[in-house]
Design brief:
CATH topology of one domain: Rossmann fold
Strand order of the largest sheet: 2-3-4-1-5
Number of helices: 33
Helix content: 55-70%
CATH class of one domain: Alpha Beta
Shape: globular
Structural class: mainly alpha
Strand content: under 5%
Largest sheet: 5 strands, parallel
Radius of gyration: 29 Å
Distance between the termini: 87 Å
Length: about 625
């Protein structure tokens, strides 16, 4: 009997590096009580935060949003500039902060009216926010005054976003922070959860506890649901994190139709913010009741819901699912002309952009169907011009894919001029900037770099807070050797966004070309801290280390790069040169053998191998390589 109630001891340090503990027990009141008591005993001096990480109750940011909310008063008092630097990430994770950090001060993708939002965020945009918040914690926690313990309740029921946040936090910073994570999961999930963490060591404890929680008081739930719905209605746009709890309460009360209504709102919100996995978590259950929802009083119509599902499927690389939902739930069931304009456009994008087998003719046919309807529907003239240009931009995309570059650019130009002529200066600014951006991309692809820079600059005048514009224009400056301007653009891109590895890699490239290898190493290192698999940053840092004479560091980076891509002959060759210069000729020869095996038609490899062979007194083999290099050069002449 006593063994049944003997619970494992939780050990947490008072000082030193952060730790990770997987605490496995059946979910329920008993597990919650055990962990609260165990953590209180193990860390009596720490600041302990018990965080409910369930996606279905707290949404994509479940757990982390509560922790950030708890930290805000302290950070605001001691380091308000830190909040300002991370205001965008904070406003995304903690919706109540949007009155203080309004998204209207962000790019047009955030600030445009709903009907003018023509650009969806890429799926990795949400991951940038995570890295920005990790860097906020990295700067704040060492000065917070108390060690922090986060108990992550129901971590095996959390969102993909939160799993990624805590995985990256552990990988990037846990060993350097006064922070302990206690991850609560069901025993069946413990090994899988532990395997996903890139932690040097972790503690694993397991308790045999009774599952389940006390039965809820239905009257109390009803009162909570009513109060929460009133709060959401009052604070729409600043209450994203309350919607999942409201949906769960309504389902528990049997008010399924009302729950579906709020699922529709949640699908739209999470889609807009680029939280596509979570949009589907809440959006897919709507499909079972879509016919009933579409016939009664509802938050959104059928096409609003279907287009939201399409958007999420497409962003997540699931084009077949996107096609199925649009074909079966929209094309087959909607006859409203205003909706069909968008439906035909969406089908066009499926066939020219998303599906693995492209059908440009069919895509263009759908675009022409859409444009034909624009002339007959009852809409404001400004909106008709916008829709026509939107469809012509789809045609431009097809022309670009067909290699008809000049036609693509001209269609975008004509569209921009049409909007300028027929719309007010404040209308559809996002779409205008996208058209200019598309023209810039066309010119960049055809190496008309001066024209590309000019159109990027025009796009940035309309949308001066969109980080990617600066990163891409900086990339063009880099190509034409205007390195000071490239560096300025990359720094502005970094200032305007949560961190992303691509812009730090580009900054490293610019510094390396400027001969500033020290700054290049710093930039590449930041890129690799965010994304260790970033090949260009890894190779660039290896070359910058070599320029600084940091041979061991360069060799280490080349070794990692070759582990990830052993088929790259140039990597083998680069490391071989470094090894040779370090006097490690036998190892250099090995790498040159590997390079020749992978690229047997490159004469430089044979010339380099001849030098290594000669250094090892293997002169006959060296001469054969020299002769073969001359043969290859003659054949290529």
């Amino acid at each position: 009997m006593s063994a049944r109630f003997a619970l494992p001891e939780l050990t947490l340090p008072a000082t030193g590096p952060g730790t990770l503990t997987i605490a496995a027990a059946a979910a329920g009141d008993a597990r919650d009580s055990w962990l609260r008591a165990a953590v209180a005993q193990a860390a009596p001096a720490a600041a302990v935060h018990h965080l409910d990480c369930r996606l279905r109750l707290g949404g994509p940011w479940a757990g982390l949003a509560d922790y950030l909310q708890a930290l805000l008063p302290q950070i605001d008092a001691a380091a308000p500039d830190l909040l300002q630097r991370h205001r965008y990430e904070l406003a995304q994770a903690v919706p109540s902060l949007r009155s203080r950090f309004p998204l209207s001060e962000a790019s047009l993708t955030d600030a445009s009216p709903v009907k003018e939002r023509v650009r969806s965020y890429p799926v990795d945009r949400a991951y940038r926010l995570l890295h920005g918040l990790i860097e906020l914690l990295d700067e704040w926690l060492p000065q917070a005054g108390r060690r922090q313990v986060l108990v992550l309740h129901h971590f095996d029921e959390t969102s993909l976003l939160m799993r990624r946040f805590f995985h990256d936090l552990v990988r990037r910073r846990l060993a350097a922070l006064p922070l302990d994570l206690v991850v609560a999961v069901a025993p069946a999930n413990a090994l899988d959860v532990a395997a996903k963490f890139d932690a040097g060591t972790l503690q694993h404890i397991e308790a045999a506890l009774a599952p389940g929680s006390a039965a809820p008081d239905m009257a109390a739930l009803r009162a909570q649901a009513q109060a929460l719905e009133e709060q959401v209605n009052r604070a729409m746009g600043r209450a994203d994190n309350l919607l999942p709890r409201l949906i769960d309460l309504l389902d528990s009360l049997g008010e399924h139709a009302q729950a579906q209504r709020w699922r529709s709102a949640t699908l739209a919100l999470y889609n807009h913010y680029g939280l596509y996995e979570d949009a589907l978590f809440f959006g897919e259950p709507i499909l079972a009741d879509l016919d009933e929802i579409d016939q009664g009083e509802r938050r959104f119509g059928r096409w609003n819901i279907v287009s939201g599902l399409f958007n999420a499927y497409a962003a997540l690389g699931r084009p077949e699912d996107a096609l199925a939902v649009v074909r079966d739930e929209a094309m087959a069931k909607i006859s409203e002309p205003n909706d069909l304009i968008s439906i035909y456009y969406t089908m066009a994008m499926l066939y020219c952009r998303f599906l693995p087998r492209r059908d440009f003719a069919l895509a263009e046919e759908y675009l022409h169907k859409s444009m034909a309807l624009i002339d007959v529907v009852t809409l404001p003239e400004a909106e008709k011009h916008y829709l026509a240009v939107f469809n012509l931009n789809g045609v431009a995309f097809i022309r670009f894919q067909q290699g008809r570059i000049a036609e693509a650019a001209e269609l975008c130009r004509e569209g921009y001029e049409r909007l300028e002529k027929h719309l007010g200066a404040s209308e559809y600014r996002l779409h205008r900037s996208v058209l200019l951006y598309n023209i810039a991309q066309v010119y960049s692809a055809t190496r008309a770099y001066d024209e590309a820079i000019a159109y990027y600059s025009q796009a940035m005048e309309l949308d001066p807070r969109y980080s990617e514009y600066y990163n891409e224009r900086g990339g063009v400056y880099l190509k034409v050797g205007r390195l000071d301007e490239a560096v300025r653009d990359f720094h502005e891109a970094i200032r305007l966004s949560a961190p992303y590895f691509e812009v730090w890699t580009n900054l490293g490239q610019a510094y390396r070309r400027m001969g500033n290898a020290t700054a290049a190493v710093e930039a590449y290192s930041h890129a690799l801290d965010i994304e260790p698999a970033a090949a260009l940053a890894r190779i660039g840092r290896a070359e910058a280390h070599a320029q600084l004479g940091q041979v061991d560091a360069a060799l280490a980076d080349y070794g990692i790069a070759l582990t990830r891509d052993p088929a790259d002959a140039q990597l083998w060759s680069n490391r071989a040169v470094l090894l040779y210069e370090a006097g490690r000729v036998t190892e250099s020869l090995h790498d040159l053998d590997e390079a020749v095996q992978r690229a047997p038609s490159l004469p430089d490899l044979y010339e380099n191998r001849a030098i290594a062979l000669a250094s090892l007194q293997r002169h006959e083999e060296a001469q054969r390589d020299r002769d073969y290099a001359l043969h290859l050069q003659a054949a290529a002449a």
